[in-house]
Design goal:
Helix content is 28%, strand content 28%. Helix 1 packs across helix 2. It is of the alpha+beta class and 158 residues long.
Amino acid sequence: MQATEIAPMSAAQAREVLAWRYAPPYDVYNMAVDDVTAEAAYMADPANHDYSLLRGDELIGHAVFYHEAQVPGGDYPDGALDVGWGLRPDATGRGLGTVVVPVILAFGRGRYGVRCFRATVAAWNTRGIAVCVRNGFTESSRFHHSRTGSEFVILTTG
């Protein structure tokens, strides 16, 4: 198995990520945007901290840091770097998260010089929460999305 690498996201990779469609109940992670070209340019801008997860030349997922990893309604005090990730729909549920999350966290430590991370996961997403726990995260709080009312879990490391 090839190693997972993190690279700056290109606009073409961003368009691919934006087109991913997950089956219910994971369809809440489908990205709906009005202007794909503008959103792809935003995601490809290094200032927005979006990255591609690659195996060779194959895009298998994406990672994001800072405010883009936050969910409206959560309390995000200073002290941890927010991180989020997603795998290509056909790569989910196969244990790949356990392999790629340590790569994402190592990248975050090196790139941003942090020790503590914070991830926000839908409360019903037991697979996502389990991946976080296996990678050293513990639950720190819960809240409801400010628009949808859905419950989310905030997990932190360190």
